[in-house]
Amino acid sequence: MKNNNNTIRRTVSVVIPVYNENEIILETIKECLSCLKEIDHEIIIVDDGSLDGTYDKVQKFANRYQNIKIVNYRDNHGKGFAVRYGARYATGDLVAFIDADMNIHPKQILTLIEEMERTDADVIVGSKRHRDSKVKYPLNRTILSEMYYLFVKTLFGLPVRDTQVGLKLYRRKVLEDICPILLVKRYAFDIEILANAHRLGYKIGEAPVEINMSLDSHVNKKAVWNMFVDTCAIFYRMKIIHFYDKKLEIIENGKILNSKRKIIIEFEKEKDLEIVFPEVAELIKRLGNDRKLEGVIKYG
Questions:
Q1: pLDDT tens digits, residue range 37-49?
Q2: Which of 40, 122, 161, 176 could be cross-linked to 129 through a Cys-Cys bond (beta carbons 3.0 to 4.6 Å apart)?
Q3: What is the rounded CA–CA span in Å between residue 271 and residue 294?
C-alpha cells in the first residue's frame, strides 16, 4: 500500500521485553506512541515475570489504547524468550525489538525503518560502530564489546559490526522462519537470530544509533561468561552438529505433510480424488484412512 507521496506504508510492531521496569515503562511507551504517530503501528509489551507490579501498571494504561498489547507469563525466562514470545503476537509487516530502559530512544526506530527501505534489507541492527553513531558508553563495556565483536566475526562471519545494541528491526517473514528453531532464552539470543538469518541468506544491514549510557554502569561478570558459553553453544549447534538445519528440515517436512493432508481432505470433499489421482485413490483404499498420507508422499 502506498501513500500520496509514493512511499510504501508499512505496519510496524514494536516488541518491548520488560522485567521489573515499573518506574520507566510508561515513559517508554509514551515516547513510542509519540514518535510513531505518523505510521501504522502497535506496541507489544512482554512482561517477563516481573515482581514489581509492571504488568498491572501497563495493563491499566493500555486499556485506553487499541494499539497497545501486554502479554505475560508467571516466571522469569530471560530476554531472549520474551522477545520470541512477543513476536508471536506481532501483526506488522516489520517487527522492531527495543529495550525498555530508554538508553536508546524509540525515535531511532524510524532510522532503522528508513535504512531498511533504502537498502531493501531483511534485517537492520542498530550499531555503535556505524560512522554516524553518537555513543556515550563506559570504557569497560567498549572493550568487552570490541572483543565480543571479533569473537562473533570469527565464528559466524556476520556482515555487521555490532550485534548487542538493544534495537533491531526485522521483516516479519524472517522471524516466522527463524523463531521456531531457536533455543537461547537469555544471553546470546541476538547472535542466534542473526547467525541463522545470515545462514539462510537474508540480507542484514546496520544503522546508526545514539546511546547515552551511564559511565559508571557496571559489568556483570557472570553474564559475560554466560554470553560466551551460549555463543559457543550456538556455534556447536550450527557448525558441528547442524542442529538448526535439521530442525528446519523437520519443520519444512511438516509443512509438506500438512499441505498433502489438506489436498486429500479437499479432494475427498469434492469426490474428485479418483479422477485426479487414480493411483493414489487406489492406494488409499488399500492402506486405509490412517495411511493415506504415506500413499500421497510415495506418489508425489
A1: 999 999 999 999 9
A2: 161
A3: 20
